[in-house]
C-alpha cells in the first residue's frame, strides 16, 4: 500500500510493521469486507479513511507551502500539519539547488538592506564588496559549498549571482521602480480562507503608484513560465492578495525573477528590458477562486474522513482531477 511505502520513506527509526493490521483472510474469502461510498461512488481503495475526523483541529494560519501541500498532496499535509508527524532522521546537508537559492536570497537581501533599498548604490557595492557579501552568505546558509567536491559549483554560483543582481538592478532602474521591502512579511485573513502568511522576496512600487511583487527562484525558466502561462502561479497570487488586503491596492504586478538565467518572467506588459520576458496568460479565469474552492474541497474530504491518495493512478481515476471543471478547482 502507498501509505506503508510513504511511512517507510519518512521515518527511518519507526517500526512500521507494528502499525500494520493484517486483514482476516477468512473474512476476505467470505466477501464480508465493507465497501465505503462517498458521493455515491466507490472510494478509491488506496484512499485513507479517518475515524473521528470531526474532532480534527484545523490550523488557524496557512502559508503558500502548506496550502500547496493540502491541495496537491493531502496525505503529506495531514501527516505534517494535522497529525504533527515529524521526520526523525539524522541531520543531512541540504541539496545543492535549495542551497544556491538560499545564498542568493541572503546576498540580495543584505546588499539592498545595507544600501537602504537604493538600486544604484547596490550596483556600486557589487564592484567594491561583492566578494565579502558572497562569502558571508555562504558561511551563513551555504555550508555544503565549502565541501571540496562543490568548489566548482561555488565559483559558478558566485559568477551567476553577480550577473543576476546586475540584471535585477538594471530592470529596477529602467522601469523606474523603487524597492519598498525585502523578505516582507504579511499575515492577513483572506475571504473563504484562514489567515494566510507570506514573505515577499521583494516589494516594489512604480512611478504610477502601482505595487509589484518579485519572487526570486533558483530554477529553470520553463517551470515558472508555465505556471504564469497556465494561470497556476498560486504563490504569486496569494502574495498579491495579501499585499492588496494590506494596502487597498487591487492592481498588483506579479513577477518571477529566475536568478541563474537573469530573466524576469512577468504578466505585466508595461515592464520593459532585454531580460524581461512577458508571459501571455492562456487561462484568464480567477485563480484566487480556484484556490478557495480547492481549499474547501480538501477540507471537506478530510472532515468527512477521507484523505485522497493518487500514487500510481491515471488522471481519469483521480477524483480531484475529475471534479476540477465542475467545481472550479
Short overview:
With 329 residues, the chain is of the alpha/beta class. It has helices at residues 2-10, 25-29, 64-72, 74-82, 96-114, 119-141, 151-174, 221-229, 234-247, 287-303, 319-327; strands at residues 37-38, 41-42, 48-49, 61-63, 178-189, 195-205, 211-217, 253-258, 263-266, 276-278, 306-307.
- Largest sheet, if any? 7 strands, mixed
Multimeric state: single chain
Q: Which term fits the overall shape?
A: globular
User: Overall mean pLDDT score?
Assistant: 86
CA-CA gap between termini? 27 Å
Return Rg in Å: 23 Å
Residue fraction in strands: 15-25%
Report on the architecture of this protein.
With 329 residues, the chain is α/β, with parallel strands linked by helices. Strands 4, 5, 6, 7, 8, 9 and 10 form a 7-stranded mixed β-sheet that branches. Strands 1-2 form a two-stranded antiparallel sheet. It has helices at 2-10, 25-29, 64-72, 74-82, 96-114, 119-141, 151-174, 221-229, 234-247, 287-303, 319-327, and strands spanning 37-38, 41-42, 48-49, 61-63, 178-189, 195-205, 211-217, 253-258, 263-266, 276-278, 306-307. Strand 1 and strand 2 form a beta hairpin. It contains 11 helices and 11 strands.
Keywords:
seven-stranded mixed sheet; 11 helices; single chain; two-stranded antiparallel sheet
Secondary structure elements and pairings:
Elements: H1 2-10, H2 25-29, E1 37-38, E2 41-42, E3 48-49, E4 61-63, H3 64-72, H4 74-82, H5 96-114, H6 119-141, H7 151-174, E5 178-189, E6 195-205, E7 211-217, H8 221-229, H9 234-247, E8 253-258, E9 263-266, E10 276-278, H10 287-303, E11 306-307, H11 319-327
Parallel strand pairs: 4-6, 7-8, 9-10
Antiparallel strand pairs: 1-2, 3-11, 5-6, 6-7, 8-9
Helix pairs in contact: 3-4, 5-6, 6-7
